[in-house]
Design brief:
This protein is of the alpha/beta class and about 325 residues long. The protein has a single domain, classed as TIM Barrel (Alpha-Beta Barrel). The chain has 15 helices and nine strands. Strands 1-4-5-6-7-8-9 form a seven-stranded parallel sheet. Helix 10 packs parallel to helix 11. It is globular and about 55 Å long. Bound molecules: coproporphyrinogen I.
């Protein structure tokens, strides 16, 4: 059994397996080299050979315990026929949606559009470099996908004023999103994903109706993934009540962000925990990195814990600091 599964399923402590969110990508020179010649990000995600190479780059450098496929949460809107573009120094930009147009996409069409992602997983699951490692497939959570599909650009400066205006659209979209997230998970599992992570990057923007936007839709995805026999990790970034989330949604593991006090959380939460370290710590110095990393490891000594960050690794992170982080975690006794 892989170290992450030992932790998740057998609740082993002190193993401290490690992988990093966004480990494949922007901070790696070998990624930037490939990206330079592949300016269309969606096409890069749909190139199984290059995606395989990019997925393996951090494994070759740092020997992480899991590979996360090089893809994006916005491949679901793309698969549904909504246009998705990534603009330099701006981020994602999505096209207008109409329910009529979305309803033209059935399971077969969606699966065909995203077939290179499933081919990527099939190839990786046969790759010797991933023996004894997990292969992580992922999806955006319903709320976060709803946000991008309606807001059409990153909500980092807030949701548009009219975001909640069309209740019928929101209701219908959530039904469609639920269906296609499940199809995408099923396809990834059939192609060899051994774990699924659900990224709810904008969960912190939910201020009321938690049942409608956070708990019920996420629970539906978690229950479905479990039925497929694959463990599921949830990352509801920025929410204020992780212990309530764990009680209601009860995923196999929860990834915490860096605003969570880990000492307080383990008093209330029994399920395995992943992550927490502020990615900005990797931009400081080795001594500070050691102190902050060791703090997490000490706190989680008697709790099943997978080392990770409290959000994705930052583009300006130096390779040397990532190497040091892996060493600190592996040497911890
Ligand atoms: O070179 C580039 O400019 C592309 C940068 C990039 C990369 C490397 C984007 C654009 N996506 C990715 C890959 C990616 N995205 C992965 C696989 C690689 C890995 O994890 O190692 C994963 C898991 C994601 C997930 C993702 N995409 C999330 C959830 C995690 C998070 O960071 O919160 C989100 C919100 C996205 C949307 C997205 N993709 C890319 C950008 C710039 C954004 C928007 C972020 C925003 O709204 O501000």
């Amino acid at each position: 059994m892989t170290p992450i599964k030992e932790c998740l399923i057998n609740k082993k402590t002190n193993l401290n397996p490690i992988w990093l969110m966004r480990q494949a990508g922007r901070y790696l020179p070998e990624f930037r080299e490939i990206r330079k010649n592949n300016t269309n990000f969606i096409n890069l995600c749909l190139n199984s050979n290059l995606s395989e190479e990019i997925t393996l780059q951090p494994i070759e450098r740092f020997d992480f315990d899991a590979a996360i496929i090089f893809s994006d949460i916005l491949m679901i809107p793309f698969g549904l026929g909504q246009s998705v573009e990534f603009k330099k120094n701006f981020g994602p930009s999505l096209g207008n949606i109409s329910l009529d147009k979305l309803s033209e996409t059935n399971e077969a069409i969606f699966t065909e559009r995203l077939s290179p992602i499933y081919k990527l997983l099939q190839n990786l699951s046969r790759n010797n470099k991933l023996i004894d490692k997990d292969l992580i497939g992922f999806v955006g959570a319903p709320w976060t996908l709803l946000v991008y599909m309606i807001n059409k650009v990153s909500p980092k400066n807030g949701l548009s004023k009219d975001f909640f205006n069309n209740k019928e659209l929101i209701h219908s979209l959530l039904t469609i999103i639920d269906k296609f997230i499940k199809i995408h998970i099923k396809n990834q599992v059939n192609a060899g994903a051994t774990l699924i992570q659900v990224f709810d990057s904008w969960a912190g923007l939910i201020t009321d109706k938690f049942d409608q936007y956070l708990y019920n839709p996420t629970l539906s995805i978690v229950d479905y993934t479990r039925q497929l026999g694959v463990p599921v990790i949830c990352f509801p970034r920025g929410i204020s009540n992780y212990s309530e989330f764990c009680k209601i949604v009860n995923p196999d593991m929860v990834n915490i962000d860096y605003s969570v006090d880990p000492k307080e959380l383990i008093k209330k939460v029994r399920i395995p925990i992943q992550g927490g370290l502020d990615p900005k710590i990797l931009l400081t110095d080795k001594e500070n990195l050691r102190n902050k990393t060791t703090k997490y490891l000490e706190i989680f000594k008697n709790h099943p814990y997978v080392f990770n960050l409290g959000h994705g690794i930052l583009p300006q992170t130096e390779i040397e600091m990532v190497k040091e982080l892996v060493k600190i975690v592996r040497d911890f006794k």
